[in-house]
Amino acid sequence: MFGEDDIVRSHKGRLDLIGNIVVLFFLVIFARLWYLQIYSGKELYRYSIENTLRKETVNAPRGMIFSRNNQLLIHNIPRFDAVIIPQYLKNKKESIKKLGMILKMTPDEINKILIKNRGQARYRPVVIKKNISRKEVAIIETENFKMPGVMVQTFISREYSDKEIGGHLLGYISEISQAQLPKYRKRDKFNYKLGDFIGQAGLEEQMDLQLRGEDGFEFVRVDARGRVRKNIKGEDLFSEVRNMKATPGNNLRLTVDRDLQIAAYESLEGKVGSAVAVDVNSGEILAMVSRPSFDPTQFSRGLTSEYWKSLIDNENNPLRDRTIQEHYSPGSTFKTITAIAALEEGIVKKDQVIQCGPTFKLGRRRYHDWKKDGHGPTDVYKSLKRSVDVYFYKIATQLDIDVLADYARKFGLGTKTGISLPRETSGLIPDREWKKKRFGEEWQLGETLSCSIGQSYILTTPLQLAMAYAAIANGGTLYHPYLIKEIFKNDGEVIEKFSPKEVSKLNISKDTLEAIKKGLYQVVNEQKGTAWWYRGVGIRMAGKTGTSQVKSMTSKELFSKCEEMPYRDRHHGIFVGYAPAYDPKIAVAVVVEHGCHGSSAAAPVVRDVITKYMKKYYPQKYALYAEEDKKKMKQFWLDEKARKEKLKKESEEKEEVAAESTEEDT
To answer: The pTM is what?
Structure first.
C-alpha cells in the first residue's frame, strides 16, 4: 500500500505538466493578444474600418476632340446604369421584383442576366440595364433601402456632335471583349479589365492611350447590406485609405473643318461613296466622309441588337470607311499620271497631235474609245479635256509598264499614306515583277493599254487620289496627310504640335506640270470638257473625271446606257479636283459607287465642298470669281441663242431652196 507521501510524489509530475500547460496556454493567449492589440492593432483597425467601406472606381473622362476652328466634335455626358451587387443582394426575389417594375423588365429577364454573370466575383456590379432615365434613377435611389444590393452607377458616355457625319473618321468606343484583353494588355502595357471602354475604330482607336486618361477611386461608407451611407475623406481615417482623383485624358484639335464635313456628307445624300478634302500646301485633311455611315453615340451608350443588326444586314456595309479601306480602279483620273509619264519620257510632246478614231487595234483585239465616233486630232490638252481613250492607248504602246508604275508610285499611289487611322489599305500599282510573282506569267502589252486609262489591276483609295492631285496642284510636293494639329491638356497646356511633313519632291518638270494643269482646267472650264456642266461659279475648279468599270464588258454593253444596267453592274463615278485652278488651296477626291459617271455623280460633290471652302475662307475672291463667271455664262447663253437662231435660219433657207428647186423641177 502506498502512503500519502507516495501518492503525492506519484502525481507531482502530472501536476507540474498540467501547470506548465496552463502557463503555456496563458502565454499563448497573452502573446496572441499582444500581437493583435499592439503589433497588428493598427492594421486590424484598418481592416475593421474597411469592412464598412466600399472602394468605387471613378472613371476618367476621355479627352475631347475639336475641329480646326475649335468646334466641339466629341464630348462627355453622364450615363446612368442600374446594377446589382450579388454580395449584398438580400431578399432576392422581392428586390428583383421591385427593380423589374421600375425598369419595366420581368424578373426572368433580370435573373437571366445574373445567371449569365455568375462566374464573376460576387462583389462586382452586374449591369441590369444601361442608360436608364433620370426618373428611373430617382426611383431606385428613393427605394434603395427596400432593395439592398441594387444601386445606380454613373458612367461617362461619349457624345458625338454630328452623329453619322463623323462616324468613320472619329470612330467609336465600346467595352473591351474577353478576346481583346490579352492582346491589348500586351500592346499597350496597360492593365485593362472587363468593363473598360476602349477606342474600337477611327481616331478613338488610334489615339486611345492619349484620350483615355487614368481612372481614380473613392471610398464610401456602407452598412451591412452594402447600402451607401455617405462619402468619406480617406485621410480622416488613416493615411493608407484615401481617395484618388481621376486624371482626364488629353484633348485633340484636328485639321478637319466641320463645315466642310457637313457639306460633303450632305452632298453625298442618297449615294454610296466617299469624299476626301485636303489642303494642297500642307497635307492637312480638311474633310473625310464615307456614306452610308453609323452613329458612334449608339456604341458608347450600349449598342442595341436592333441597331447592330441594321448595320450588319446593310449590303452597302456602313461600318467600312471607304476613304481608306476601299480601293477602286481610278478610271480616267489615272490618265493624268499616264500623260505626265509620256511627257517626261519624251514619248509625246504637249502640242503633238495624234489622230484618234473610235477604236485602237492591238493584235487581234480592238480597244474601244468611250465615244463611238472617236475624237479625231488630239493633243495632250484635248486628251484630258475630252478623256480620249484612244490617245492613251497609242502612247501606252511606247510606255513600259515598269516606267508607268514608277511614276504612279512617285505620286503615292499603291502605297499606304500613313495617315493616323487604323486599317488603311495600300491599293495596287502593278508591274512586271508583281504579275510574275502573283500569277507566274509575263506581262502583256495589252495590259499596259488597260492600265494607261486606270483599269486592269490598278487600285487606289480616295485619299491617295486626293494627295496625288494635291501634289500636281502645288507644283510637285507630295505631303504626308495628317489629321491632328495638336494634343493639349484641359488647362490648355500643349503637349504636342504637328506640322506639315513632306514625303518627297517630285522630279517632274515645270513645263509638264503646267501642261497637265492646263488640260485639267479645260476639263471643267471649257465647252465639251467632261465636267463643264458641273463647274459651279466662283471657285475656278480644275480636275479630272473618271469612270471605273466594275466588270468586263462587251462592246455592246460598253455603249449601253449605264443607268439602265443592274445597279451592281454600273460603273463607279470618280472626280478629283482642286481650286482655285491657278492658285490652288484645296484638293478634293470623290468616289460614288455605281454612280455611272464621274461628271454627274462625283463632280457635283467636289463642287459643293470647294464652294463651301471658298465662301468660308476666301469670300472676297469667291464673290469676284462668281461675278465674272455669271457674266461669262450670260454671254455664253446669248451666244448659244444666236447660234441656234442662225442654225434655224440656215435650215429654213435650205428648206426654201429645196422647195423652190422642187417646184422648178415640177
So the answer is: 0.85
